[in-house]
C-alpha cells in the first residue's frame, strides 16, 4: 500500500523541483498499480495512463520557470524619478534667473527647469526659495573687508570697492532690493551690514560717537547702491569721477575724528 501523505511529506513535495515531483509520482502510481494487480489489464492500464499524465504535467512544469527563479521586477518609487542635477547646477540656475528676472518673477519650477532638475529636489536641498536666494545672492563676500585699509584714505577705498568694474556688488544689491518685502531678506541685509561695515568700522574710529558715525557711513554706502540699483538705466553721473569725489569726501568726513565742539559761550 502507498504511504499516507503526511503534512511534512506534502511540504517536501511542494518544495521539490517539478522533475523530482515526476519521479515521486511514478513511485506512487507504481505502488498503487501493484496493489490492484500487477498482472491484470486494469493495473497496467492505470499505470500507463498515470505515467502519461505525470510525464506531460512534469514536462510542462520543467519548461515553465517558477516564481522563485524569475527575476524580481524593479520597484518604482512614487512620484517622478529623482533628477541627477547637483546642488551646484541648481545654484547656477538660480543665480542666473534671479539676476535676470528678480526674486518675485522667478519660481522654483523655473529654477528646476533650467537646472534640469525637479522642484522637489530644489526644496529638498535648499528648504525654500528664500533660502536659496540668500545663498546665491549673498553680499557677505563683497562686504567682507570693505572697511579695511588706512583710515586716512578709507573713504575713497570703500567707494572703489563698491563701484567695481564688474558691477558685482551693484547687481547683488539690486537683486536684494527686489526682495526686501521678505522678512528673511531684510533681516539678512541688516545683519550683513552690521557685521561687515558698522561693527568693524566703529571699532577702528577715533573720537566720539564712533558707532553713530559708522552707521552713517553704512547709510552713505547703501544710499549710493540703492540709487544706482533703482535707476532704470544707471546714470554714469552717479558713479562718475565727480560724484565719487563728493561721496568720498562725505564718507571721509565721518571717518576722521571730528574737531572738538565749541560751546555757545565761545
From TrEMBL:
<keyword id="KW-0804">Transcription</keyword>
<feature type="domain" description="HTH tetR-type">
    <location>
        <begin position="84"/>
        <end position="144"/>
    </location>
</feature>
<feature type="region of interest" description="Disordered">
    <location>
        <begin position="66"/>
        <end position="87"/>
    </location>
</feature>
<keyword id="KW-0238">DNA-binding</keyword>
<protein>
    <recommendedName>
        <fullName>HTH tetR-type domain-containing protein</fullName>
    </recommendedName>
</protein>
<feature type="compositionally biased region" description="Low complexity">
    <location>
        <begin position="71"/>
        <end position="85"/>
    </location>
</feature>
<dbReference type="InterPro" id="IPR001647">
    <property type="entry name" value="HTH_TetR"/>
</dbReference>
<dbReference type="InterPro" id="IPR009057">
    <property type="entry name" value="Homeodomain-like_sf"/>
</dbReference>
<dbReference type="Pfam" id="PF17920">
    <property type="entry name" value="TetR_C_16"/>
</dbReference>
<dbReference type="InterPro" id="IPR036271">
    <property type="entry name" value="Tet_transcr_reg_TetR-rel_C_sf"/>
</dbReference>
<keyword id="KW-0805">Transcription regulation</keyword>
<dbReference type="InterPro" id="IPR041678">
    <property type="entry name" value="TetR_C_16"/>
</dbReference>
<dbReference type="GO" id="GO:0000976">
    <property type="term" value="F:transcription cis-regulatory region binding"/>
</dbReference>
<feature type="DNA-binding region" description="H-T-H motif">
    <location>
        <begin position="107"/>
        <end position="126"/>
    </location>
</feature>
<dbReference type="InterPro" id="IPR050109">
    <property type="entry name" value="HTH-type_TetR-like_transc_reg"/>
</dbReference>
<dbReference type="GO" id="GO:0003700">
    <property type="term" value="F:DNA-binding transcription factor activity"/>
</dbReference>
<dbReference type="Pfam" id="PF00440">
    <property type="entry name" value="TetR_N"/>
</dbReference>
Amino acid at each position: 500500500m502507498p504511504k499516507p501523505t503526511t503534512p511534512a511529506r506534502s511540504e517536501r513535495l511542494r518544495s521539490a523541483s517539478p522533475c523530482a515531483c515526476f519521479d515521486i509520482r511514478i513511485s506512487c502510481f507504481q505502488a498503487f498499480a501493484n496493489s490492484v494487480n500487477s498482472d491484470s489489464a486494469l493495473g497496467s492500464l492505470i499505470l500507463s495512463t498515470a505515467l502519461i499524465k505525470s510525464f506531460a504535467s512534469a514536462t510542462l512544469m520543467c519548461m515553465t520557470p517558477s516564481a522563485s527563479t524569475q527575476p524580481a521586477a524593479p520597484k518604482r518609487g512614487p512620484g517622478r524619478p529623482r533628477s541627477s542635477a547637483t546642488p551646484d547646477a541648481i545654484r547656477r540656475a538660480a543665480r542666473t534667473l534671479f539676476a535676470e528676472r528678480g526674486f518675485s518673477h522667478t519660481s522654483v519650477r523655473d529654477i528646476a527647469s533650467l537646472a534640469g532638475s525637479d522642484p522637489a529636489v530644489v526644496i529638498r536641498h535648499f528648504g525654500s526659495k528664500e533660502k536659496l536666494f540668500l545663498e546665491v545672492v549673498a553680499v557677505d563676500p563683497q562686504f567682507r573687508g570693505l572697511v579695511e585699509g588706512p583710515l586716512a584714505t578709507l573713504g575713497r577705498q570703500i567707494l572703489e570697492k563698491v563701484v567695481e568694474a564688474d558691477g558685482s556688488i551693484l547687481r547683488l544689491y539690486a537683486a536684494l532690493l527686489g526682495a526686501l518685502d521678505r522678512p528673511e531678506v531684510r533681516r539678512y541685509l541688516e545683519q550683513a551690514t552690521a557685521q561687515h561695515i558698522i561693527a568693524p568700522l566703529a571699532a577702528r574710529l577715533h573720537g566720539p560717537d564712533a558707532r553713530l558715525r559708522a552707521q552713517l557711513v553704512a547709510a552713505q554706502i547703501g544710499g549710493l547702491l540703492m540709487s544706482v540699483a533703482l535707476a532704470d538705466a544707471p546714470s554714469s553721473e552717479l558713479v562718475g569721477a565727480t560724484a565719487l569725489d563728493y561721496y568720498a569726501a562725505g564718507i571721509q568726513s565721518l571717518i576722521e575724528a571730528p574737531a572738538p565742539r565749541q560751546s555757545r559761550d565761545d
